[in-house]
Every structure is written in structure tokens, then in C-alpha cells.
Amino acid sequence: MTTLDVDSIYGLAPGHRLQFEEAQQAWVVLYPEGMVKLNESASDILRRCDGKATLSTIVTDLEQTYDQVELRDDVIGLVSAALDQGWLKKR
Amino acid sequence: MTEKADTPLYPLWLLAEVTYSCPLQCPYCSNPLMLGERSKELQTEDWLRVLAEARKLGAAQLGLSGGEPLMRKDLEILVAEGRRLGYYTNLLTSGIGMDESRIIALKEAGLDHIQVSFQADDSGLNDLLAGSDSFAQKQRVARLVKSHDYPMVLNIVMHRHNLDRMREILDMALELDADYVELANAQYYGWALVNRDYLLPTREQLQQAEAIAHEYQDRYKDRMKIYFVVPDYFEGRPKPCMNGWGRVFLSIAPDGTALPCHAAADLPGFELPNVRDHDLDWIWKDSPGFNRFRGESWMQEPCSGCDKRQECFGGCRCQAYLLTGDAEATDPACSMSPRHRVILDAVQHSAQLKVLPDPVMRNKRNAVRFREEKRDPQQSCADKPVV
Ligand code: SF4
Ligand code: SF4
Fold first, then answer.
1. Interface confidence: ipTM more than 0.85
2. Which site among A28, B19, B331, B349 is 20 to 30 Å from B46 CA-CA?
3. Which atom of ligand 2 is nearest to the CA of B335?
4. Has residue A30 been placed in a domain?
């Protein structure tokens, strides 16, 4: 797993859109000629990658929202996978 | 996808073939042989209703294609409505009919992405295959797409006449700064089936081209994504056509015919519904046409007992019909099909040809000729003796 700097900021890559789909009852990432349906934890993380929040802010936010600890590895894992897929871009 | 194949809840894709009119004449065009008359095309209001109904069903990707969709003057209206409804809007164009003011208008309407098709990286070959001087215009359009900040897919249909130029084609894509490249091996129905002897590559050509595509995939993975799909004729495995009949794709022809696959109009024995007569909810869920090959109950041996049937759905129904005369047969591209020989023979036959036939160009004149001959699309290969 790539280690990402927790102070860095990510947002959706150009040409990508994140939206909630009624029919699928799920968040999806849309991009040229394709779409991926996200599970709940993935959408919770990706929705917070808004091009403003740092990864550590996102981690704290999620830990508070779900009253859990040590979500850092989950967030970093998902964000690096999303970077590999080209859904996210570093700001 | 985890839902069962026989419970398609909603389409994900709406492919709106807004017109069959096209200034180009590609001999592999996937449009039906007889094309259609412009006077029978849906009006703007019909398309707006189709967009709304399909969105309500769940479609999230909208492909605006044709023919050449830019031939429709109301394209900007359709894009704007598509975007307003929440679609990701894709324009699939040859580039003919695009200029800077139009690309700006489309951006303002909310167009998300543009796919530009090229025939080759070389103007002579490109223009020969397109049947018109279009290469310079395509290059201009590709640059416009990027300078107006659209993501760009370059689509190149691959066959005997351009596979040997894989390296040059990918270099062109890099130079034009494409985000994605689709190296789409020709699919042999419609016009491509008529021109199969002209188009079918040799196995060696394909192997070399594929190796180059993989080399570029590795080397440039941070710059562009390259898709290379080996054509089913050479794999012994059929493609999972449309990801299953009536499962993901909803295609609307220029005259309003609703199709589970844009080639399905060639299939005999049932009527496809039209959006002028029915709403899309009924068409998708209940129409006999969309249910005909849903799930597995229609399958014959070997598909019905095969453990791959959830992956390939028995292959392509149109290809099964066109090459075996039986729409319910196993796709002959599958090595387990009792008719697989027809594929092997076709590959061998074209590899041995010393002189290639002239291509039958996709144009009105030839379409009218096919219409007058009342040509059965199946005949397009049956009348060519294979070996
Ligand atoms: S394949 Fe060629 S002829 Fe057919 S619609 Fe596309 S550009 Fe036109
Ligand atoms: S036998 Fe039928 S289901 Fe099995 S791989 Fe071939 S086409 Fe697919």
C-alpha cells in the first residue's frame, strides 16, 4: 500500500462526478463511458474528498461521526485505491 | 453486479442513436444495412420524453451517438436536458460538424465528455477508410476538445488495414493528449459483416498489435488509459454481449425503436417496441422484446449447462443468428459451439486471400441497394462461400 501524507488534500479528478442514484440506492462515481457503484464506507470517504479537507481532517471527521477509532488506514487504503483508479486527484 | 441475471432492475446506460445520417462511410459501421429515412427520425419532444423516462428507470450514463449526432440541430437541447436530469453525458462523434462555437455551446449545455473516432493516424488511410477527407478536421476537433477542458476518449476501430499501425496510432493519441484510447476491434455484424473479408486481420497482426498496446499501457499508465479488447473471432470465447440481454443497456434507434443492443434490429421472429407507442417503463420491464433473451431459460446446450453462462450470457444473439441462422444458439465465437467452425473458417479464408475485395462503403446508395434487394442481413455472409 502506498503511504499517503495525511496533510495532503484530494478532490475528484476532472471529468468525474459523484452522485447519489435513486434506482441503485447508492453513491456512484461517473466518468467517461463508465460508472462504479460505491459501498457505504467508500462513499463516506470519497464524499469528503472535496478538494479542501486534508486526509487527517477526514479521518477525524469519520471517527467522530461513527464513534470509532483508528480509521486512518481505511481512509488511506481507499484513497490510494481511488488514486490508482484515477477517480481522485491531489490538490 | 451481484443481482441475478434474470432480475434486471434498471438500465445503467441509455444509448440515444439520434440519427443515422453521417457524412462518413466507414465500411465497419455498426448501423443497420438499410439505415433509415431521416423523415422517420424522432422529434426533439420525443427525445426529451425518452431522456426523462430512462432516467426515471435508473439510467445514469447517456451516450449520444448515431450516425453523426452533430447532424442534429437540437443536440445542445438534448445535452442540456440530459445533464439537468443528472445523466453523465457522453458525445460519440466523428468530429464532422464540430467547430469552436459549437463546442462552447455544448459545454454550456453541460456536456461531460467527448469521444472522437479516428480511422487511422495517417491522413491517407484515415480518409480512405472514412470515404471522405476528414483527418484534418478530426485533428482540429481533438485539439478543441482538450483546449475546452473536456475529458477525451479516442476511439479507433481496428482491423486488417490499421492494426499494423498500432504504434503510430498510440503515438498520435499521446500527441493529442487523449485521456482514454479505445482500440475497438471490428465487430462483424451489419456493414462489417458484409466487409468481413476486407476487414478481418490475421492472427499475427493481432498478436503484434496487442503486444504494442500492452507496452504502451505500461509505459504511459499515468498519462492515458488504453483499452484493447481482442476480437471474439480469435479468442474462442464469446464476448459478454451488452453484459446480458436487457440487463444494462437500453438503446434507442433514430426512429424510436427500443433495442437491448443496437444490432438487435436484425433478429427475426419478434417485434421490438417503439417509444412512440409505449413508455420506457413497460418497454424495459415487460415488453416481449426485452424479455426474449433475459436470464437463462432460452439457452440451449452447451450454454445451458455451462459454468461460464453467468459471465458471457451465451455470447451475442445477433452473431448467433447471423452465422448459424438460430438466434438461440450458442454464439459460434465460442469454441464449445458445435458451429465454431464457421468462425475458424472465416479467419482462415481471409488470411489466405491474395487479393482483397473492395469495401462496400456505408452510404445511402448502398443502403438503398440493400433495401431494394430486401437483403436479409444474414445473407451478407451466407452468400460468400467460406473456403
Ligand atoms: S462508423 Fe463511420 S459511417 Fe458509421 S456512424 Fe460512425 S463515422 Fe459514420
Ligand atoms: S458454451 Fe455458452 S455459456 Fe459456455 S462459454 Fe460458450 S457461449 Fe458462454
1. yes
2. A28
3. 6
4. yes
